Amino acid sequence: MLLRNLDLMAQNKFNVFHWHMVDSESFPYDSTTFPNLAAKGAYTPKHIYRQADVKRVVDFARLRGIRVVVEFDTPGHTGAWGLGQPGLLSDCFTSSGSPTLPNLIDPTKNETYTFLAALFQEVLNVFPDNYIHLGGDEVGGTAIDCWLNNPRILKFMKDNGFGNDTTLLENYYFKRLLPIIQNIGSHKKPIVWQEVLDNKVVAPGVIAHVWKGDTYDDMLTEMEAVTKAGHYAIMSSCWYLNYIKYGNDWGYVDYPLKINRGMYYECDPTGFKGTDEQKQRVLGGEAIMFGEYVDATNLIPRLWPRASAVGERLWSDPAQTVSPDVAWPRLHEFRCRMMRRGYPVEPPNLPTYCPSPFEADYEFDE
Amino acid sequence: MAVVCSVTTLAAVLFNFVLLFSFTVGAYPTPGQFTEGQPWPLPWNISYYDFNHTLSPGKFNFKTAYKCDIIDQAFIRYQKLLFPSSKKWDDNIDDDFGAGNDADPSLTFLTVTISEECPTGVPQLGMDESYKLDVPSSGAAVLTAAQVWGALRGLETFSQLLFHPDGDENVYKMRAAKIRDYPRFPHRGVLLDTSRHFLPVNSLLANIDVMAHNKFNVFHWHIVDDQSFPYESKTFPNLSVKGAYSKRHIYSQDQIKSIVEYARLRGIRVVAEFDTPGHTESWGKGQPNLLCDCYDDHGKKKDEQALIDPTKQSTWDFLLALFKEILEVFPDHYIHLGGDESWFWIPSCWKNNPIIQQFMNVYGFGNDTQKVENYYFQNFLKLVDRARRGAKFIVWQEVLDNAVDASEAIAHVWKGGSYAEQMQEMATVTANGHYAMLSSCWYLDIFKYGSEEIEGYYKCDPQGFKGSVAQKNLVLGGEAALWGEMVDATNVMARLWPRASAVAERLWSDPAQTASFTDAWPRLHEMSCRLIHRGYASQPVNGPSFCPIPYSGPPS
To answer: A Gene Ontology biological process annotation (chain A) (predicted)?
Structure first.
């Protein structure tokens, strides 16, 4: 399924597969250094990417001119890591003191960093891209239960002069993680979700992955701020394609919240008011398909051809691609082409037809 | 938030998989929460024995003394559903289920007994779908039903008692249980729209299969509409020649016949809808002078023709001939005559149209275009009866809301924004003495992000309004509607299933036993995974989750 998707990405001239490999719910990456991570953390043995599988994906992508940038998101979003690596996550407690689910790495232990160094040593070799996505998103809420409410960690914070400010502990974590990456390979550079840099972690050369903002204006404000602070930036805020809504959202559909409202074709990562220098720091963007409601049964129709709108925005001349109305006949032809090539790319723009209908390959007795 | 897609991993199936952590991240249920061997929809009476049978492919048979093509075909189907051999698009499943074949089975046959004789025709409203299924811990397994339709439902339930523990496809276990089952409502349908987007025949057939797995018993085929006319009429061939999207977007009469037969073998009625007088723009392409010219408010003719012209005799002649043909092609006692949303075109195409204005004058309708609509239906319904004596109809609710006299007609309720409004519609329609079926809360084409959606579908109840017993008895059931504006064969399967499964249970099962979506979820999850195992792209609907046997259906 990943391979079929890479084919479609290539047809759309996308050049990066951002592989959000693991998260709280499951850990499907089969680490040779820490085999228990997948043995205990994957959904089942059938839901695992073996080293051979990963290599196959990377090679397949290479032949299509597509980079594979893997993301191992920490310190949050790590619920599944703790199953195969006891002691990695901190114990969490509600405000009344009852235990709750561990979902945040314990940054106070040295063993944590020994583990991370060994894991990333492997990962940075398995994935040959110069960039590694380190995640770093959405620590805030979990930090209350898992850091502040954890007496040992709270003490650590006080001892280190962080007071009650979990952001400072988060920064401490990244200040230790980034040099680890640096040491493994000086050519290896991190991408992080924007809050890591918003929190003023000093990390020159690191790319900010911008995802915040409820309205289009807010999103552009984020891009402006991030580039003004001197960071390189890639934008995803307006391209959360997993947030489906009824209608032709590839270029239309306008509800109050931009993240939910579509108009993928319109969104421009350099659309903010800023200096040329700021705009130069915008390296591009990514269409996002988080997997809460997505698997092999619906990935391709849900992603395509909506992502094709993103593809054109990131490739083409903005001056020649202003109007979705003008673009539609060409997108329609392209949709039918992908479909004719055998991919179940869905109809994005109300009643339509292609020269020949799509026929799924069901099995029948007849 | 990992994208859990299984790249084709190697075949070795491990026997012990670690039973996963049972915590909930965020508001989602545990990803691995599913039942094993529990049927969907929930049977009215099911009690499990504390025993699981072992089955073995090659050592199991269905038996019956009943001579009927429907049962013969069903036995072949269910043999394959119980023991699938390697599927053509999955190179990971072993062709020979080694260990499975060697197992010593404790259950080797199911005997099926049916009282009434084999029907030669298609199922109709009122079909008897009740059955008794006994799969005891020891002794013979028996399925009994009054009619063959009940036997089909029972065979489906039987096939759902089977499970593969821990996702091991080499091991076949079956729950022992005693089941007495029948549907709550007699009309349980799925609407597919083949005009907004064409759906090829194999897509309709595959969905009919999945409907059967969910015990739906009506395929409501919204076959033509404004955008295209794919129905190939022998009497009026130009309708599809000029009105279909292309000659590759057409249903021939032979194809339709095969679909009706395919459905029949699965106990599913095919109720066709030819929606008039609105929703007919494509009709005018192959039948000039059928539709009215439309005018703007300044009397200028627009380049548009819509709404059937009720003032011409040629209209009635055409409709009579067409419906004579349609009612032969579709043998169900009911035909869906549409009748919705005329108000959309009436201002331009009737009110502003000089021919209609004159007509209204002559007939003394004054300014009331509603009277023109009523005139249309009064004549049209008589015509349909002439086309086939005793033909019964279903109409979208407004036809009966507008006090057209049609005593046995079924009102198809689709209006209402909120659940409260939808229930009010049901109350009003039944208070007016009409039979009713509900779709308002089940417009599956209007999808939303999140899990609230499936819970909403599950909870909607066609009898959920305040009303008398007499009113509630007028509720015949309902339909999950998948309008085709954003749907074609690239995404129909995933968009329809398992969301329509929630509707299926609401229409079949005991409401008292199916009040909680949270309680139903593990069983719905098993059902979704069951459909996946059978090769259908049944999508995730309730947050991060997985199936013990990952999807490996047609590459989609």
So the answer is: glycosaminoglycan metabolic process
